[in-house]
Amino acid sequence: MIRPLEIAAGLMLATALVLGLVVPPDAVQGDLQRIMYVHVPSAWLAYLSFAATLVAGVAYLKTRRMRWDHIAGASAEVGVLFTGLALVTGSIWGKPVWGVWWTWDARLVLTAVMFFVYLGYLALRRSFDDPETRARRAAVYGIVAVAQIPLVHFSVVWWRGLHQPPTLLRPGDPQIDGPLLAALLAAVFAFTVVYAALVSRRAEIARLEDLLAAPSADETVAGSGVSAPPIVRDTR
Amino acid sequence: MLGLLRVMATLLRPASGTGTVLGARLATPEVESIRPRIGFVAHDPALAPHLTLAENLYLVAALAGATRVAADRALADVGLAGAARRRVVHCSNGMRRRAEFARMLLIGPSLLLLDEAHVGLDPEAFRLVAHVVAEVTGRGGAAVLVSHERERAAAMIERAVEVRDGTLAEVAP
Amino acid sequence: MIRHVTTLFVAHLRDERRAGEVMLVIVPFGTVALLVVPMAVGIDTPLLDRIGPGMFWVVLLLFGTIVTQRQSASLGESRRDMLTLLGVDPAVRFVAAALAAALLLTVFAVVIGAVTFVLYDPEVVDPGWLAAIVPLTCAGIAMVGTIAGNVAGGLGTRSSLAPLLVVPIAVPILLAGAQATEGLRMGLGILRWILLLSVVDIVLALAGVLTARPLEES
Amino acid sequence: MTDWGWVGLAFAVVYGTLIGYVAVLVRRTARLSRNREGR
Lengths: 236, 173, 218, 39
What we know:
The structure holds four protein chains of four kinds.
Chain A: H1 4-22, H2 36-63, H3 66-98, H4 106-126, H5 131-160, H6 179-213, E1 231-233
Chain B: H1 2-8, E1 20-21, E2 24-25, H2 31-34, E3 38-41, H3 53-64, H4 68-77, H5 93-107, E4 111-115, H6 123-138, E5 142-146, H7 150-153, E6 160-164, E7 167-171
Chain C: H1 2-19, H2 21-41, H3 45-68, H4 77-85, H5 90-120, H6 127-151, H7 158-169, H8 171-186, H9 191-216
Helix pairs in contact in C: 1-5, 2-3, 2-5, 3-5, 3-6, 3-7, 3-8, 5-6, 5-9, 6-7, 6-8, 6-9, 8-9
């Protein structure tokens, strides 16, 4: 059963794909600039998904409802996917333009650092089998990690400086306009809807997996989580 | 059985239902005021491996606001006066278990929770369990002893409760 | 409260002095790392002079993380329960552990600093500033490491997972330390790196204290 | 490699990965709901 959100996401993705290929090439960079239509949305989602993981983590710690933990985990997994894509497309853009796969551009470095923070977060989540412990520990690390992101940003920017041409990673840059801007915004919007659809589906999977793993009510396991046993008077 | 003991020790939040320990409602901030009155001896002893038995007890004394003299006396009471300077890593399991009993004597809890405390103890050490329990109940406190060997503990039990597939059933002691 | 911190702090240090894991295992390991680098990059002295300080900071971060994950830092579950029942606040446990780690890291830094000086013969940098930069970076690494240790507490994979949790978010600490020393060498202003380091340490101290309690509930 | 070659590569990587990930999610959902009925 495919949800309406997923149909919308599919259609918008298709439109963004077509738009990205048919709009006229950039006056300066030619067709290469089209890579922006996949790179910029991915980079944007790298940040968005991390923010969502933070918010969901805080919400879990407040409400203790597993729903939030599932969203936090799902958003991190989808987030690491887009962060990886942002890095790959960044390299694919860099090779023809600068002749190198990797440039120490402040934003690429920041994206790479976030990529590894995500990997740490996901590795942490996989290490726990008790959902409660996993949710709590992941939420705490998520908060600490995201609290560091602005500091990472400052340190990298001070170190490398922002002397990169703004069109490389800045969405909606004044230098591109008209149809090119429309294609870029369409792509960013489409990818965001795709992100939402993927996260909701992945969170659903996480919920099912937790249900499957949890011992059902009648299978009590002595020594681990103890369900509240009624006191029964039984004098033998 | 560790789960239920840890709930009673206010260390594990009950998944559902409520209860009170020493007058404090579980899973509420109230428990923090009664925690110092709870003594909990779990399976593996709460001892720093590289510190000596005495140093471990002095640490507990410092945190619980007791004196070093009291710590030495507690060690002597459990027959570890001679081994006080020995590092935990060089002590036998029996000696580590006795050090745990010394810790209980030192902090003098109102609620004593012993999880399989006498498993694998020689008879002489088993008498220590009775001694520690008596010390707590003597002061009007309560002791909860979890064990598979009911007969051995029978002497010091007033009430017994059995766990059968998740249900607690009170049985004759 | 302060008494609890000092009591636990002293216990951590005595535990470590007895175990000797930092001085007899991690410090030698850090020294070996500094020894093998020239084998890889060549022993062209001007090059070594250039990369010396950088190697110092990398070894301090990577092996410093191992210092925070040392055995005597990880209290077993029963010892954590004992401290909880004794009324020791989880935040106090964090502060004591982080302080102990910071002190051990500073000692570690001084030793590998000396080793770097001997092996790489870098240009002498104003020790006055270093005396401020090194402890600040050690405090930062200590706090991130202690938080990561608590987050990954009780896991068999802790010693490999914790470094992955620490290093990416410790980038500002590494950059501040390395760029500050670079600034000293080139006579550039380093105040902003010292400022960044202080902000990072404050944020981490707050994060450590505030997350201590949620981490501890089971 | 021509400009269009690079563009094609970037699009293929991004859209290919997304479709691949959707396929993984669909397969996992199917396997999970089958397990839940089976219990």
